[in-house]
Amino acid sequence: MGMFISVETDDTVIRKGNGLAKRLIEVCPVNIFAAGTDANSVAVVEDNVDECTLCDLCTQASPDGVRVVKLYD
Amino acid sequence: MHFYEFEAKRILAKHGVAVPKGKLVGSAAEAASAAQELGGDVYVKAQVFGRNRGKAGGIKEASGAADAGKAAAAIIGTEICGAKVDRVLVEEKIAAETLFAINATYDAAAKRPVLVATDAGGKDLDDVNDETPERVKRRHLSLLGPVLPYRSKELAHDLGLSGSGLNRMTGVVTRLAEICRQYDLTHAEVNALALTSDGRLVALDAHMELEAEGRYRQKGIVEELGITDADTRGARAPTEWELEAIRIDEEDPRGLIGPAVDFDGDMGLVIGAGGGSITTFDAVKRLGGNPANYAALGGNPSVDKARRLTKLVLSKPKVNKICVISNVVSNTRADLVARGVIKGVLELGLDPAETITIFRVPGAWEADAAKILKKYNIDYCDRTVSISEAARRAVAKVYGE
Lengths: 73, 401
Known about the structure:
The complex is a heterodimer. Chain A is built from four helices and four strands; from the N terminus they run βααββααβ. Chain A is globular, with a radius of gyration of 11 Å. By secondary structure, chain A is α+β, with helices and mostly antiparallel strands. Chain A has a two-stranded antiparallel sheet. In chain A, strands 2-3 form a two-stranded antiparallel ribbon. By secondary structure, chain B is of the alpha+beta class. Chain B has three domains: about 20-90, ATP-grasp fold, A domain (Dna Ligase, domain 1); about 100-225, ATP-grasp fold, B domain (D-amino Acid Aminotransferase, Chain A, domain 1), CATH 3.30.470.20; about 240-400, Rossmann fold. Chain B has 14 helices and 17 strands. Chain B has helices spanning about 5-15, 30-40, 65-75, 125-130, 150-160, 165-180, 220-225, 240-250, 275-285, 305-315, 335-345, 350-355, 365-375, 385-400; strands spanning about 1-5, 20-25, 40-45, 60-65, 80, 85, 90, 100-105, 110-120, 135-140, 185-195, 200-210, 255-260, 270, 295-300, 320-325, 355-360. In chain B, a hairpin with a 4-residue loop joins strand 8 and strand 9 (about 110-120). In chain B, helix 10 crosses helix 11 (about 335-345). Chain B is elongated and about 75 Å long. The chains are: A alpha+beta, B alpha+beta. The interface of A and B includes residues 4, 30, 54 and 70 of A.
């Protein structure tokens, strides 16, 4: 978990989405998502989480599969 | 980025301004040979940056080859204006009936290019301006349009010239203004422009400085002069601290650190944005602070870049407090800077509330920045607090009220 931002993913939702894992990796401008254990899953790169620009592209790609939390709110 | 005298003269010659015949050499023997080739009296001139080389013993007059060799031997290897001399320019001596000085530069107050001239050349123009301001003439130029020769002619007329002298001076002044603009120079100065008995105008000395940001754009002339990328052209060799700042900047393309300059003070500065960095630096100095560095951070840096810069600033032995101050930012996220700075401080095991004396980065995402800073009890101010006032508060915290 980052110091300022937390990114949580719901693996069950992401696995169900067609190519959703790949899309999450593609849309994040600061590489918070990386390929998971298989093609249908993602891993959160903790080192990059605090770089999150709060652009919402990941939550738009998967409103139910990704949750971004500002830890300072 | 400074040009040496011999480089400035190559630029002048390339653009049709007459310069004395000369040769750049690196030894006494070569200097003697160059003087022999030139014949007559010569000047042997240390090729270092900085003014007042003559007073520092960096310019010697020589008569003949042996004398030139001796002069070069006395100059090469010595330190002149803070730099070790490894090359001298051996140049024919030109007799001047009148010495002028012309400078094409920018008038920061008027925000326009300006031509400054005097008929009391050979001296620093600032000194002439202090001693005999009536002998310093000025003409402003347009930033948008081409350099118009009539402005140069007006200036030449103000110098008391007429007839062919007026026309020749008009040409030299116009070329100098064009050189300044064409090569992104902060100034192009011929501080000793000789009017000879046969009516020629010859540039005896020249100073030019390229805007640091223009170096890449001006690759053509930089390469033409044989200046390599490794030649940073600073007033001194970069310190390890400065090299590390460059590495941090180059390793992450997001945002920009630069210029980063190492000073001997005890107050760390993470500053930036549209003149905000220099304003803050000046304000800190004026208020009695002693900056440890100058490091402008901008262009929307990543959290990581801000983190690494913060750690670098705090790595300086005398520094245990920093201030983070910038002008209003539209292209830099205040919250990302806040995250990076706090991370850097925490990674060093320091208390952000104690270490960050003040955080004034108003602009994009400042509301989020404010929340972050509040969480860590960091003194935060918005744009209603001036840069000077923010600097005052920071200085007070570092040195006591």
